[in-house]
Amino acid sequence: MRTPRVSVVSPRISGLRTCRAWLEARPQAADAVLALALLLLGLPQLYLEDLPRGLDVYYAETDLRHLVVIVAMTMMLAFRRTRPLAALCVIVAGWVVLTVWHYPPSIPDFAAYLVAVYSVAAHRGLAISALGGLVALVALNGFLVAFPGELGIMSFMTDNALVIGLWVLGRNLRLRRAYFAELEDRAARLERARGTDARAARVEERSRIARELHDVVAHHVSVMTVQAGAARRILDRHPAGAREAMTTIEEVGRTALSEMRRIVGVLRTERDESAGGELAPQPGLGDLGELLDHVRDTGLSVQLWVEGEARTPSPGVDVAAFRLIQEALTNTLKHAGPQARAWVRLRYTGADLTVEIEDDGRGTATIMADNGDRPGHGLVGMYERVALYGGELRIGPRVGGGFGVRARFPLEA
């Protein structure tokens, strides 16, 4: 007996996954954590880094007022997804205040400014994101012009390129998210449509099967009526003939009841009265030779083998087996390729009839590519026909290449 594998996840990894899931469910809390991280990483720079010579006279030393403004600017990142333009405007306003009060630039306020530029482009439409980008560029260039030191053209170019690059990155990610969301929505719509089509195909196939069996059941009832009338007329003068007629009525009645019992469980729609022209008797296995001749005329090589002692199946099974072979050979013609060969086998036993249709073409890859690994309407019809008579159906690739269909129909009701 095999021992089941047990996966062990360390408490540390489990805790990280729980924390990540919690943050993904609360994006504003995740943004607040990002803002706190920027503060913790950037605030020591205000006290540890010395100003360049010449700027120490212009800039004021860090005090409580300076810290309050920087904390307010950085914590606005907690609203970078819900209110990105407002967060960017507050951060820009904080820049103006720090410049007017002669406080030196720092890592937290500049990082918050860059994150806000990216956020307004990534989480808002083109009009609002373009307005936010314009505000960001005006504020950056105003700060660079007001900077007390001498800045070369390269500083202007690199700083502006950084801001524009972050804005473009945010726009591209927004468009990419929208594209993937559209793909997911389209896939969901196609999945719903595929399910609707499959249900419609089943309903249509069941209705068509009922129409095919209509003539069979009507024929049985007609035979029973004629035999009953004959038995009534000869009952007194020819009892043996009457008993023979009653035996025939019993056999035909059982067959008719068996057919009715099969179709009542699956028929869910009213018969289409406009399809009265389709009520002609349907072909059966006796017409298989003509079908194979038609297929050979198309150029497909088809061989037929019959194993066991041939028995006459019930009319419904006869129609279902014929239609199954017809559909399988049609798929072979469409998908197997011009050099393919096909084989049809009928195997009779005492209890059932096995029908096998195989080919050696390239149908496996073609059918799967066409149907996306899901059954099409033809395959749905095969399953419905076989299930209607309590049979079993297997459809799939064949060992050595090609495609195979194998169905087993019980011969007894």
UniProtKB/TrEMBL annotation:
UniProt keyword annotation of Transferase present: yes
Domain of life: Bacteria
Pfam families xref list: DUF7134, HATPase_c, HisKA_3
Keyword match RNA-binding: no
TM annotation in the entry: 86-104, 110-139, 151-170
Start and end residues of each Histidine kinase/HSP90-like ATPase domain: 316-413
Protein name: histidine kinase
Organism per entry: Actinomadura vinacea
